[in-house]
Input
Amino acid sequence: MNGVALGEIAAQLGGDLVGDAALRINRLGSLESATPTTLCFIATPRYQAQLSATRAGCVVVPPALREAAVERGAAIVTPDPHLYFARLSQWWVVRTGARPAPGIHPSAQVHASARIDASASIGPLCVIEADVVIGARVVVGAHCVIGSGASIGDDTRLDAQVSFGAASHIGARGIIHSGAVIGADGFGFAPHEGTWIKVEQFGGVRIGDDVEIGANTCIDRGALDDTVIGDGVKLDNQVQVGHNVRIGAHTAVAGCAGIAGSTTIGAYCTIAGAVGIGGHLTLGDHVHIRAFSGVMQSITRPGVYTGTFPIDENANWEKNAATLRHLYSLRNRLRALEKKSS
Amino acid sequence: MNGVALGEIAAQLGGDLVGDAALRINRLGSLESATPTTLCFIATPRYQAQLSATRAGCVVVPPALREAAVERGAAIVTPDPHLYFARLSQWWVVRTGARPAPGIHPSAQVHASARIDASASIGPLCVIEADVVIGARVVVGAHCVIGSGASIGDDTRLDAQVSFGAASHIGARGIIHSGAVIGADGFGFAPHEGTWIKVEQFGGVRIGDDVEIGANTCIDRGALDDTVIGDGVKLDNQVQVGHNVRIGAHTAVAGCAGIAGSTTIGAYCTIAGAVGIGGHLTLGDHVHIRAFSGVMQSITRPGVYTGTFPIDENANWEKNAATLRHLYSLRNRLRALEKKSS
Amino acid sequence: MNGVALGEIAAQLGGDLVGDAALRINRLGSLESATPTTLCFIATPRYQAQLSATRAGCVVVPPALREAAVERGAAIVTPDPHLYFARLSQWWVVRTGARPAPGIHPSAQVHASARIDASASIGPLCVIEADVVIGARVVVGAHCVIGSGASIGDDTRLDAQVSFGAASHIGARGIIHSGAVIGADGFGFAPHEGTWIKVEQFGGVRIGDDVEIGANTCIDRGALDDTVIGDGVKLDNQVQVGHNVRIGAHTAVAGCAGIAGSTTIGAYCTIAGAVGIGGHLTLGDHVHIRAFSGVMQSITRPGVYTGTFPIDENANWEKNAATLRHLYSLRNRLRALEKKSS
Output
C-alpha cells in the first residue's frame, strides 16, 4: 500500500484537519515509535508533553491541544480522540486487511446438514457438526470445532482453535478469540453421601450482537435454561462464566475474572481484572467492581465497589495481617475503654 | 422422540408418583420456563412460591411439599429431589442422546501401536500417538491429542480439543471438557545466578475413576513422581493443578482455583471458586475453603475456612484500606491506653 | 536403555563422585520412590532424615551431607545439588528422549511462502500460514496454528495445540506448552455513550530467548507497539499478559497470575501464583510479589511485597471481616480516647 492521504482520512472519519491534506500515512502508531508517515492520537491534555517529542506525521488531538499540535505538524482536532482513533482503526483494517477468501477449506470436516452462507470462510481443519448455521461473511479460523445445532450470526469472526459447543448461539459482528470454550457443561452435581452425582446440562449459550470474547475464556452452557450474554458485552481473556449466568448489555469484564453459576449482572457494568463473583447473586445496572475484588453479596445500588487487601512491604504486611486476626477483640477492648472513660 | 410417560420415569428412577402415570414428558426444565410436558424439581421447601407459578407437567418435590405439589398437578415425591433429578438427567441423556458411533474417524491420525477398543469412538482430526491404550465405549472428541503411552479407561469421554499428554492416565467414567491440558510440564527450575535452569519433568498424571475435569483446566505432570487425582474428584473450568499435587477422593474444586506444586489436599474437601492454595502444603480431609481465599499454611483440622477481604463501596474501602496499613500501630496505641487506664 | 554408569554422569556433569563408578542408573527419581538403580538429589541438609530412608542407588548431596550420604551408598557431592540435578535432567532427556524426526507431517497445512528449516519437525495437522519463518531443530507439536508472518527461533519447541498468532516472534531455545495463545487481540475499546468501540490491535508479541510459557497462558499482541517478553522469562500455566506489557529478563511468573495492559515489570522479579497486577504500572527490577496479592500501584524499590487477606476459620473471619468495615471509625474512636486521656 502506498499510504492514505490525510485528506481521505478526514473525509471518511470526520474531524477538523489542520495541515497538509496530501500527506500520506502508512501506519497507525504510538507517539513513541512514530515516524513522519505515522498517525497517532492523544486522548487528553495530560499527555501534552509527549506531543512535542513525537515524530508523527499527524496527531489526533482534543480541542485543548489544537495550538500545541499545530505548532509541530499536521493534526486532526476532534472532541474525543480515543473514539476517533477506534473508528479509524476499524476503517484502516477493512481498507488494508486481507480478509480470508469465502469458501470452505478442503481440509475442513463439514457435516452435510450444516448451512453455511456462501460468503463465509471456513478455515483449514475445522469441524462443523450437524445442523450448524453460519451466516454471511462469517470467518471461522483454523481448527475451530462448531457443535451440532450451533449458529453464528453475520460478520462474526472466530479465531483459530475456538470450541463452540452444541446449542451455542452468537449474533452478528461478534469476535471470539483463540482457545475460547463456549458451551462446555456447567459445574452441576447433587451431593450424595460425600460424593457428587452429575446433573446433566441441557441448556445452551445465547450470545447477543457485537460481543467480543477473549482468548481461553469459558462460557458454560446452562443447566436447564440458557446462559445469556447481552448485546455489546466485552469479555477479556481467561474469563470464566458459569452456567445460567446472565450478563446485561454493554457490560465489560476484564481478564481472569470469574462469575459463578446463576448470577445475574446488569447492563453497563464494569468488572475489573481478576474479580470473582459468587453464585446466585444479582448485580444491578451500572455497578463497577474494581480489580481483585471478591463479591459475595448482591449489589443493587449503582456505584464503585472494592474488596481487596492493600499491598504492602512484606514485613509490614506480616504485622498487620497478624493483628487483623484479632481485630474483633481489639474492637471490644476499645469499647471497654470507652465505657470506662465516659 | 414422543416423550416418556411419567409412569416409566417412576418405574426406572423410583419415587412416589402422584398423578397421571400416562402423562408424557418431553423435556427436563426449570420451573420458570416449563410447559405442560416439562418435568422440573424443587430441592427444598424454600422455593415453594415458585411451585404454584410453574406450568410444569410434573414436579419432583420433597415430602414437605407433597400437598402443595399435588394441588397443582402431577408430582414425584422423594426425600432428595436434587439427587433424584441428577440421576434422572443421566438416564435421560442415555435414553435420548445420540452417542457417536464406534470407530475411528478417517481423518484421525492414529499410531499403529495404539490399542483402541473396538467400541470406542475417535473423532475427526484426533492425533493418537504411540502405545496409547483406549478402553471400551470411550468417546474422544474432535481435535484431541493423546500423547504416547497415555491411557483412557472405559466409558470416559473427552470433549473436543483436549490435550492429554504422554504418561497421563485416567480411569473409568471420566469426563474431560474442551481445552483442558493434562500432563504439561510442571513449573520447575533451579535458580542460578539470577536465571532459571529448567528441571525436566519425568512424572505423569494419574487420575482415578469418575473424575470430571472442566474446560481449559490444567493438570501438570509430576517432576519425578506422579500428580495424583483421586476417585470422584470434580474440577471446574480454568483450574490449575501444579506438579505433584495430590487431591483426595471426592474433593470438588470450583472454577479459577489454583493449587501450587507438591500440595496435598485430602478427601471430601470443597475448594471454592478462585481460591489459591500455596505449594508444599497439606490440607486434611473435610476441609472447606470459601471463595477467593488464599491458603498459605497447612490446615489439618476439618472445618470451613475463609480469607478474603470484604467488598465495600469504594469510598469506604479506601478509608478502611488506608487505616489497615496502620493496624499494628493502632493495636499498640490501644495497649498503651489500656495500660494507662488500668 | 541399559542405564548410564555413574562414572559417565560425573564425567559429563562434574561433581565429586564417591562410590562405585560402574553402578548403572536407569532413572532419575524422588527419594521416596527410588530403587537401587535410581539417582536422586537432596537440596539442603534440612532433608537429611529422608537420606537414610531412601533406597536410591546414588544421591546428589551438598558438602554438608557428604558423610551421611556416603554411609548409605554412592553419592555425588556438589555445592548446589538442585542446579546439578537440573542440568543432569536436561542431559538425560537429550540422551534418552525420542526427538521427533525432522520434516513436515503430510497432514499439516503449510503455506507455500513459509520458510521452514529442514531440521525442524512440524507435527500432524498443524497449520502454518504465509511468510512464517521456522528455525533449526524447532519442534512444532500436533495441531499448532502459526499465524502469517510469525517467526520461531532455533531449538524452540511448541507442544500440541498452541496458537501462535500473526506478528508473534519467539527467540531460541523457548518452550511453549499446550493451549497457550500468543498474539490474540488486546482488550482495547473506546467508551462511547455507554458502549464499547473496538480499537483494532496492530502490535505484535516479541519474546526473547530461553523463555518458557505454560499451558493455557495468554500473551496479547500490542495495540500499536509490541508486547515484549525478555530473555529467560518463565511463565507458568494460565497466566494472562495484557497488551503492551513488558516483562524484563529472567523474571518468573507463577500460575494464574494476571498482568493488565501497558504495565512494565523489571528484570529478576518473581510474581507468585494468582497475583494480579493492574494496568499502566511500573515494577522495578528485583521486585518480588507474594502469592494472591493485588498490585494497584507502581513499585520502584526492590523488595518483597504482600497483599492478601490472612485465611482463618470462617467463624473468626466473619467477626473480623465485619469489624474491618468499621476500621476507620475505630481509628477515630481511638484518637478521641487518646486525646481525652492525654
